[in-house]
Amino acid sequence: MNIVPIINTNDAVVPPPEPNSDLQGVNVISIKDNDSLAARLAVEMKADLLIALSDVEGLYDSPPGTDDAKLLDTFYPGDQQSITYGNKSRVGIGGMEAKVKAALWALQGGTSVVIANGTNPKVTGHVITDIVEGKKVGTFFSEVKPAGPTVEQQTEMARTAGRTLASLHPDQRSEIICGFADLLTEKREEILSANKKDMELAGNGGRMTPAMMNRLSLSSSKLNSLAIGLRQIAVSSQDSVGRVLRRTRVANNLELEQITVPIGVLLVIFESRPDCLPQVSALAIASGNALLLKGGKEATHTNRILHELAQEALALHGVRDAIQLVSTREDVEDLCRLEKMIDLIIPRGSSQLVRDIQRAAKGIPVLGHSEGICHVYIDAEASIDKVIKIVRDSKCDYPAACNAMETLLVHRDVLRAPLFDQIIDMLRTERVKIHAGPRFASYLTFSPSEVKSLRTEYGDLECCIEVVDSLQEAIDHIHKYGSSHTDVIVTENEETAEQFLQQLDSACVFWNASSRFADGYRFGLGAEVGISTARIHARGPVGLEGLLTTKWVLRGDGHTAADFSEQGSMKFLHENLPVAHPLHGQRTSN
Amino acid sequence: MNIVPIINTNDAVVPPPEPNSDLQGVNVISIKDNDSLAARLAVEMKADLLIALSDVEGLYDSPPGTDDAKLLDTFYPGDQQSITYGNKSRVGIGGMEAKVKAALWALQGGTSVVIANGTNPKVTGHVITDIVEGKKVGTFFSEVKPAGPTVEQQTEMARTAGRTLASLHPDQRSEIICGFADLLTEKREEILSANKKDMELAGNGGRMTPAMMNRLSLSSSKLNSLAIGLRQIAVSSQDSVGRVLRRTRVANNLELEQITVPIGVLLVIFESRPDCLPQVSALAIASGNALLLKGGKEATHTNRILHELAQEALALHGVRDAIQLVSTREDVEDLCRLEKMIDLIIPRGSSQLVRDIQRAAKGIPVLGHSEGICHVYIDAEASIDKVIKIVRDSKCDYPAACNAMETLLVHRDVLRAPLFDQIIDMLRTERVKIHAGPRFASYLTFSPSEVKSLRTEYGDLECCIEVVDSLQEAIDHIHKYGSSHTDVIVTENEETAEQFLQQLDSACVFWNASSRFADGYRFGLGAEVGISTARIHARGPVGLEGLLTTKWVLRGDGHTAADFSEQGSMKFLHENLPVAHPLHGQRTSN
């Protein structure tokens, strides 16, 4: 590729040369500054791309710094009318208007143009590589205007429609979800035929494992269970938005309420599994949130029709735009640029996906678990039966899950007991590959391969065994090497168990139960949003509540803070009032 | 400064030259690779600093990638025994051991050394400027070992002691806080004399305004009210950690509890006001959190003694280290590097401080309000008396507060009413400077200065007035220009009010009450942690609850997930059980 970077540090007047008759079909440009010179040079050199570096981020639709100014990431020649330039540029000649003129001229001559900031100390030196790598930096000048809205426009549309969605009656949100569920079965043929297309393309590519193909495929029965799941979410949606959590009589005629409200705009990023789309959409609708969806490329056709059906259901109450499907071409990093427009990112997929997004998401909170390094600790006073049942289930029930056991911690005394051989026999029968922790290896004459790291998430029929001397050592080991996801103690001694449950700093701490119970459905939270290893907002399995925040509503009668000052006439009462609705998490079981 | 950067891309064997007799008092170094060559060259050139760029972040105490490896930010010659080198380096010669040897040799010769990563694509080109600017990058080799622990060690100590603090009985945490309150009055003399020292130094500097001096100063009466405040926090601490929020019978003999637990390690950054230290410490103790405190430089002596007293109180139950005072030399940016060690950052100070920290805090959540652009909207059906009272209080009660009014939105009909002149008269009497929004300016023959931006937080006796046509326009204006902090409607029409309260997407929405009520104390939350404009975790005024998260405790009897499969013998009950304690936010008012 032929690239001409021009760093616009100090514009100087360059005398216009004679028009070059070689440039046929291209308007004449008079060379007045380094912008026009650059454009001329780039076209003459038949450069593919001209990068013009300025001291602003790129082209704005209004003068930068004014209230409404928005950076344009792509500019089409036809859009020129929609730009308002500032009256003066900091540098006499070569202001933005001159740059745009030069850029348009270069574009006509067949050279693409990016105008970007070259003065940002954190990026100088990389802005050029970033642009060459196709990252969204500055403003790109393009001849071709895409058919659909930009992702920024999609986010704006989603937020606006989302606010209407949030103000609907709970019954209306519930109707939308049920409508969507109906469409999943009514439009079964169209969905399955779109899915077939994706499956064929994926099969031809030959890069997908059978497990991946299985995740990608939909069937009539999958659609039926999806529809059933959606109707359950519709029921739980009745009681989510606008629930009163707290009521306080602050003073006479001054009443405070804390109520649940949607978080705002969610971005959900999911991998090949297209059944994620209806589930996540239903959760967003139930919680009154706007939603941007970014699905896997391999499920393009399936996701497109599922999204159309979601919008068809939303249109029932005039909020079609509340859920937007983002093009698979959009980089996650570029989406994370929309920092002020997206309120929460939820990655649904591998822990690698979650980690990547946590790294990219500057400033936007991410709800998800990056790692599940779960431990089962076998105390000296454990019951043989329970140990065998719990260890088998924790490791073998679904080894790829984040709540599967990765490390088996064994009290030293257990090593010498017959129980230990039974555990090993069971693991061998289940074909679990055993790795030895350093301490365990030192006890054995012939040991299995020593672990590379005690922090490994195998996600497969493999586990590490390590020996500890005491409960305290077990707790210290888990604090040091665990991921604070889910950890289990097996013991018949209640006091030991309670110490473990109390002292261990993990999202889920279990006594005599399999780690696999760490799951929203099994916990009885209804619809599951995901499992979070973050320490704030939501921790462990997250139900619909994880998609809600609160707002404070105060109703007074002309009350002022001054009324309550030392000289004032009023006194705070701060009297707690009963709340009419079932409380936070206290949904009755009927 | 004389700096020699050496980029270690590909080591080649360099034949050792003759020993140079000029280098007296320095051991001989044989030049075997570019590290030793660089060291030799740097010392010969009498360079102040040698920067050796490698493909790892710096020097680790164990081979990088092993479970316990920690990057050393400073390395002292005496520490060499505590380092374990890997068996092999990726590049034959010039591994880390060779680098350290060369670095120590250079150090002896009077040249400081930094070993850092030069291959990270995001920092190449800046790593050198960062190092020259004194940022913590890589490992710095220094002759002088500081007396105290490093900030990493402090954080580790705090976390460990914090875990013990969290496991104390609520009465014990309460005792610590009361003990601290007692010390504030008992050690009054020492505190005031330390404070006097700070005041003198600040006064001599001459750069502090009277308001800043006032914030810095302590007095007997300030200490008394601090002690009273602490005893109130001690009371509320009884009911914070270990509170059961939810109980579910998942199945027979399988019971789930969701209980409150501390978040972990908090970093609180506060500006000159030293009374912040006891308050924040008490809140951390009450919630069982470990705490890193970073105070303003101008309050060094006061903060030091207050911190000593906090530790004296903590020692009562063996948790002295749970609260650590971080040196004022530590950069906020460097503290934010401790991403995996700090769970929540709370900036207490100007919104500029909060914004700076939000920018620096990569990955660590920040609890705070970056902006308070609060609106009061005067509806066409507002009562004159209430308008005057509420606007005066919202703007003038304490204009520097984040919950003060910045923009007064007026319904078009009000402009023509006598009420409007009364508002203007009142604002003039209160010496409030008025700026006109563009729409308001267009209505006037002679208008006050037009606002530069409708998003301005004046923080002073200044405000913007703008005109809207309808409730919907008011809501749209606030959504567009507000900061979702606190917004008020004044109207006698209940339906209009309820629409405003329902549709407006702000942390606090008030009807006929001053914006100044957006405050933890006024809301009756007890101790106030701060006000948050974040949308997740905690929103609006935050009480002790904002410093808590939850964990899930499951008690079973050998239960496995397989028991509940289609072939299994058990069924989920998911029966909600009553909780013994007062519920989330439902503290009784006795």
UniProtKB/TrEMBL annotation, chains A, B:
Query: Care to name a GO molecular-function term for this sequence?
Result: glutamate 5-kinase activity
Q: What is this protein called?
A: Delta-1-pyrroline-5-carboxylate synthase-like
BP terms from Gene Ontology: L-proline biosynthetic process
Assigned protein family: In the N-terminal section; belongs to the glutamate 5-kinase family. In the C-terminal section; belongs to the gamma-glutamyl phosphate reductase family.
Top-rank taxon = Eukaryota
Annotated ranges, domain Aldehyde dehydrogenase: 150-417
Catalytic activity, reaction form:
L-glutamate 5-semialdehyde + phosphate + NADP(+) = L-glutamyl 5-phosphate + NADPH + H(+); L-glutamate + ATP = L-glutamyl 5-phosphate + ADP
Keyword annotations from UniProtKB, A to Z: Amino-acid biosynthesis, ATP-binding, Kinase, Multifunctional enzyme, NADP, Nucleotide-binding, Oxidoreductase, Proline biosynthesis, Transferase
Quote the InterPro entries the UniProt record gives: AceGlu_kinase-like_sf, Ald_DH/histidinol_DH, Ald_DH_C, Ald_DH_N, Aldehyde_DH_dom, Asp/Glu/Uridylate_kinase, G-glutamylP_reductase_CS, Glu/AcGlu_kinase
Pfam families, alphabetized: AA_kinase, Aldedh
Domain Aspartate/glutamate/uridylate kinase per the UniProt entry, residue ranges = 2-117
Which PANTHER family does the UniProt entry name for this protein?
Answer: DELTA-1-PYRROLINE-5-CARBOXYLATE SYNTHASE (PTHR11063:SF8), GLUTAMATE SEMIALDEHYDE DEHYDROGENASE (PTHR11063)
Q: Which organism is it from?
A: Clupea harengus
Pathway field: Amino-acid biosynthesis; L-proline biosynthesis; L-glutamate 5-semialdehyde from L-glutamate: step 2/2; Amino-acid biosynthesis; L-proline biosynthesis; L-glutamate 5-semialdehyde from L-glutamate: step 1/2
Encoding gene, per UniProt annotation: LOC116224115
Instruction: Read off the Gene3D superfamilies from this record.
Output: Acetylglutamate kinase-like, Aldehyde Dehydrogenase, Chain A, domain 1, Aldehyde Dehydrogenase, Chain A, domain 2
Q: Name one GO cellular component term.
A: mitochondrion
